[in-house]
Write a structure and sequence with these properties.
Largest sheet: 7 strands, mixed
Structural class: alpha+beta
Number of strands: 7
Shape: elongated
Helix content: 40-55%
CATH architecture of the largest domain: Orthogonal Bundle
CATH topology of the largest domain: Endonuclease III, domain 1
CATH superfamily of the largest domain: Hypothetical protein, domain 2
Distance between the termini: 73 Å
Strand content: 5-15%
Number of helices: 14
């Protein structure tokens, strides 16, 4: 079987790049962090802060889920200096619900580093030196914000490359080949727009299920479609079933507020407020106070590597807690909790009659 790179001539490659750019100029998705093609032609340059912030937020998350968070973040912290000066707790609270909370901690570390430097580095190598920025984010910011022909490969790009070149090796083993092919496709002119075009193509036309090949600008060049394989690619090695963990959380309402715990900086839900718990994260712990605990029910949540079922126990009164902090009602909002803890809190607060 011939190498996928041998299946395309320089002339065909140029045709594919031109077709993709023409399609993107007409159909680019409107994003709050993106500079539209016509605006770039008018001289508007992407803001590296907004590009970087969006890329961090979009890791393991959908565009639809990120939009509102992005608007709130940039309204509250309009530039990297403002974010660098923010309090950790305020940023973590604003991030609540986006998941993967290590991203928020790294976001602050990176912002403070950039603020000290006086701005973002303008190339991939310099961006890689920043805390919390890995190869993908560095390439994306370098390409989109600075038009460096860096190779940007996310899940959408992997899918487009696998179909376009009929790469049948399953992921993750195919990743090096897909990165190589994405590099082959990356032009010297408008590399940032090219990167966004491939991502848009994967998100809107070359979708995981039922790709809309009939309206794809690259339909005549797609090896996967020619072989009738487009819906099967990229192939993936079957994932092992996620294990299920069990645990308990205690919701205690005292006269002045709720009993909460600040979770350790490292680990699951690091640095976030949560209900005192036991048995689900390996940390252990006992009930926070002697009280008449009663069951409010169970909540379920799925993390990257496991499913979680939490039993929620509730109590109220004058107990003297041996762990956690009393957070006054006036200083507490359930939206500041990570998703799994908000589920547990909502169940608990419904089980306790309001005063």
């Amino acid at each position: 079987m011939r190498d996928a790179g041998e299946m395309i001539s320089g002339q065909e490659l140029a045709q594919m790049q031109a077709l993709l750019m023409g399609w993107y100029d007409r159909h680019a998705r409107v994003m709050p962090w993106r500079v539209a093609p016509q605006d770039k032609l008018a001289g508007v340059r992407p803001d590296p802060y907004r590009v970087w912030l969006s890329e961090v937020m979009l890791q393991q998350t959908t565009v639809a889920a990120v939009r509102d968070y992005f608007h709130r973040f940039t309204a509250r912290w309009p530039d990297v200096a403002a974010l660098a000066a923010a309090k950790d707790a305020e940023v973590m609270a604003e991030w609540a619900g986006l998941g993967y909370y290590a991203r928020a901690r790294n976001l602050l570390k990176c912002a403070r580093n950039v603020a000290v430097r006086g701005g973002f580095p303008n190339d991939r190598a310099g961006l890689l030196d920043l805390p919390g920025i890995g190869p993908y984010t560095a390439a994306a910011v370098a390409a989109i914000a600075y038009d460096e022909p860096a190779v940007v490969v996310d899940g959408n790009v992997e899918r487009v490359m696998a179909r376009l070149f009929a790469v049948e090796t399953p992921l993750p083993g195919a990743k090096p080949e897909l990165v190589r092919l994405a590099g082959l496709m990356t032009p010297q002119a408008r590399p940032g727009d090219h990167a966004q075009a491939v991502m848009d193509l994967g998100a809107t036309i070359c979708t995981p299920r039922s790709p809309a090949c009939g309206i794809c600008p690259l339909i005549d060049h797609c090896r996967g479609r020619a072989a009738g394989l487009q819906a099967e690619l990229p192939r993936k090695v079957a994932k092992a079933a996620k294990p299920t963990r069990q645990g308990t959380v205690w919701a205690l309402r005292l006269p002045g507020g709720w009993l909460l715990e600040r979770r350790p900086e490292r680990g699951l839900l690091g640095g976030m407020w949560g209900l005192p718990g036991d048995g689900w994260d390996g940390a252990g712990g006992e009930a926070p106070a002697p009280a008449e605990w009663r069951a409010a029910g169970e909540v379920r949540h799925t993390f990257t590597h496991f499913h979680l079922t939490l039993q929620v126990l509730v109590a109220e009164g004058e107990a003297n807690p041996n762990r956690g902090e009393l957070v006054p009602f006036a200083n507490f909002s359930p939206k500041d909790l990570p998703t799994v803890m908000r589920k547990a809190f909502d169940l608990a607060s419904a089980a306790i009659k309001p005063r």
